[in-house]
User: Fold this.
Amino acid sequence: MEGAVYALILNALVALLFSVAFAIIRMSYPGDRRFPWFCTAYLLGMMTPLSELGVRFTAHQSWFMATSYLSFLLSIIAMAMGLAVVAGRAPPWRLAGAIVATGVLTRIAIWGGPRDDLAYELAYQAPFAIAAGLGMAIAIDVAKANRSRLWLAVAIAFGFLVVYLLVKPFFANAFGSGATAAAYTSSRYALFSQATGGALIVTVGLLILLIVVDAAMGKTLLESESDALTGIANRRGFERQSARVFADARRTGKPLTIVTFDLDRFKAINDTYGHSAGDAVIRAFADVLRSEAPESAVIARLGGEEFVMLLDRTSQRGAWPIAQAVREATMAMDRRLPPVTVSGGIAERQPGDSLDTVLHRADRWAYAAKNSGRNRICPDPAGASLRVIARNN
Assistant:
């Protein structure tokens, strides 16, 4: 059996293994629509070597010639679309459709043309190279935006795939790809094509698999660090996100302030209006935090009716109007909800502080606000009305 036949069988098995790997990831995240693209891409890619074998060993040559061409083109397009989706970009549907349509029309136009002719071979490979170029362009764009070496590696791999597809016509012209499609698997060109192409597809597949696994792990981490009711960070997420910000503040000496919030008499809301109304109040207050907090702030629900906001590059005095805006917006929440107010405490990082000590100090000020009448933020920057509370803290 010719070496190219072995290469075709090996490439089909490799594509199947990649498809299964992506399918397993897909089943682990049933609600995520990003990962099926690559499972589909490698299923389609598997059809290409199988179709080449069909051309070689069956009488349905025309049928398998068509499926070989189309499956390979669709496979590369699916990879490019999958990259866009994983990166959070809109899939380029129109451009992808135009590439597929151009490829189909080109293949029809050159059907039955002279094999090994350079113009014929260039026309045959051009749609594949353009599709791979689309994947390369998407990866380059993401690599620039995210400064990601992994995405840069994907872009380079797609770049090699483009070069490979554009070089193939010259090899076919120089060494011959077989007098007929059936004779292709016996040619030296077929061995070069399948061996080199297989190596590139494996490289691209492994890099994409790393990106998919990284995206899946990021999704798992996000879910584990997010509050299910509000969508903002939970205590674990707050601690992880705040640790980096706190370390930066300690290194640079820039101010950092924590504000804790506690909804007033929240148990009475649950008892009077029911837990569904209480949940609606919790969600609405989280929306208030999102709208009033600066973009760089870390906000979280620590549990129950307790929330926190970490403000980098912000002093205690600078945090006061932000906390006051949250308090005022809370009273103006959706009138269909039970009326609610919030008390808050502010604490600025001091030399020698840890994240826990600042958080603890802010908590004590929040309790002071509740003990002094609720619906207020402590300490008041003026300090005149709360000096007694300050002495107790």
The chain has two domains: 3-224, 235-392. Residues 3-224 form a domain with the Rhopdopsin 7-helix transmembrane proteins fold (CATH 1.20.1070).
